[in-house]
Structures are given as C-alpha cells and as structure tokens.
Amino acid sequence: MIAELDVLEQNESKSPTRTPVIDCDIHNYDGYGQKEFDDIIVRYLEQKWQRHHEMIGRRGHAAGAFPRGFKNAARNDAWPPSGMPPGLDMKFVTGQLLDEWDMDYGILNPLAGPGTQLNIDYGSAYARAINDYQIAEWLEPEPRYRASMVVCEEDAEGAAREIHRLGNRDDFVQVLLLARTKEPLGRRKYWKIYEAAVEHSLPIGIHFGGNGGHPYTGGGWPSYYIEDHGGMSQSFQAQVTSFVCEGVFEHFPTLKVVVIEGGFAWLPSLAWRLDQSWTRLKEEVPYLKRKPSEYIADHIWLTTQPMEEPRQPHHFHQLLNQMNGGERLMFATDYPHWDFDSPARAVPLDLPDNVRRNIMAENARNLYGLE
Known about the structure:
alpha/beta
C-alpha cells in the first residue's frame, strides 16, 4: 500500500493553478540511523564532549519503538542512493520533497531529544552541536529550509543561552521540544525557555515523541505500538492543559505554541472541558483572567499530520469551524516517515480556496514570518 501510494504521488499531475506549500514537519533526524547521525554530530561537539560522547555516549530513558516492518520508520522510497539513512542526505531530501512538490519552504525538526538525556550538561552540548550541524549542512546550502532550534529543556538556563545565541538568525523559526517530558511543560522550571523565546519572537514547537521516564497514559505503559502511536495525543492534551493552567500564557501573553504531529480533533473538546472545570475551580487558579478556551484560541497552533479523517466529510468542516475556521492549522508531511502525507491528498478537496491556501502555506508563513 505504501509503495503504491509513493508511485501514485510521484506521477500525479499538478494543478494548473499553483497552491503554495510550506511543509511544517521535515525530519533531518528522527532517532534512527544513530551511528550515521552521531558520526556527523560528533564533529560539531566541543572537544571535551567529543570525549564524553565516545566514552559514555547517550543515557536516557527507554521509549516505544516503531514496528520493524517500517525500517527506520521511513517510507519505502526515502532511502537515498548515498546509503545514508532517510532524512540525512540533504540533496536527496531536497529533490524528493521540496523540488518534487515545488515547496516554498520546509521546516526542519530533528528529533534528537537532547532534553531526554540524564546528563543535562551533555544534553545542552548535544543540542548546540545539532543546531550548528543544521546551519552548516542544511540552512546555508539550501535557502528554502528553516529550522527548529533544539534545546535541552531540563537545563532551562542552558536552553535560554542557546536561544539567545541563535535567536537573531532568520533561519531558525521556533524552539523544539518533545511531547513526553519529565514534567508538564507549564511548570515554572521551564519558564526561562519561554522568556528567551518571547524575546526573540520564536514559537515553541512540541513534537510527537520523547521519553521522560513516564508512560504517555495516565494508566501505565501500553502493550502495543498501535496504542503508543494512536494515543500520543494524550501527552499533547496534558501539555496544553499545563500551559493554560500554570498561567504561562497569562505571564507570556505573546508566546505561541505549535502542536506538531499530535492530531487536532481533540482540541475543541479539551477546551470545552477545561472551561467547564474553570467555572467551578477558578479560585484555585486566580491568575487566569480568561476562559481556558480563549487562551487556547489565541496561543495554540497545530499541524495537519496526522490528518483527521471523519467518516462523514461534513464533520471535518464542523471541526474547522470549531477551530477558528482553520486559522491555526498548518500543513505537514512528516517526511520521511511511513505515514507521510502528500500535499496533493492531505487536505479535503471541497475546502474553500482561501481555507486551503491558509492551511497549505499562509498560516505558517504568517506564524514563522516567512516571505
């Protein structure tokens, strides 16, 4: 099925009227091809951390893995002739994705998870190395790429320093965290990160994944991959709830948060439930001056992958209406993963032209300040 879709998408004719495309989720590292990636990144580490990397290496918590049937969690045609793992060959990715679909921009999200490292000093050093790697091997060679800045969130002061180091560069457009963290991201221990991000007008991106030492469910560790893959939205709901209830948006009124690869159909019902709870429990959070749903509407953006596909097509239109008409929804492919969403097929065909354009490119263009 995957291989058939790959062929169909490559041969599919383009519309005579071009719809701009900005891909908000491209993985130039995703946790697989570990040796090949480490061989690259070690060159960007400071000498003392190179020695640490060679002698000790990474140390973090265990997390779920993709099914072996999808090697490196990649689509079948994403393996480049160079022999590098999917996502690491910049020229191949550019040709297969940006050139093939005539994209205006692609947002890079390396899923290295430096914040999951138990040695947070090493985690911060590793984050710096990844960001320098992105500059040298992706951003400078190809001007259509923009990057997410990775940081070690458990070292909030170090993360803030990294944001200040690179925050004035136009080619870094957000700060990237993962959904499964050691503590909910609204906690004040993380606020220095948001303070620095706001100073540089950078959104906070929260992506699928992570391994903070806890299961993503409130009931314990699941048995099957399908539970992990389909249920990750629970982690995102917990993070959105934490941002709202801890008062992050009240304290940082210009902060923007992007939920990446976590779905989006759950957001309206979460907002309704929080509003109902707030009417009865607002005394506990007196610093919240507005309904939770209002903070969510003003501060939360989301990406389309995975696209929600209700059985009744008109339910999708109802969902968009409950989400400000789709003004906070942005297109993403999740390249090079096996559940890649094609720009030609991801968004329902019966959307109004202006809504389609906003989702496919303009919402991201406005959020990230792209020309």
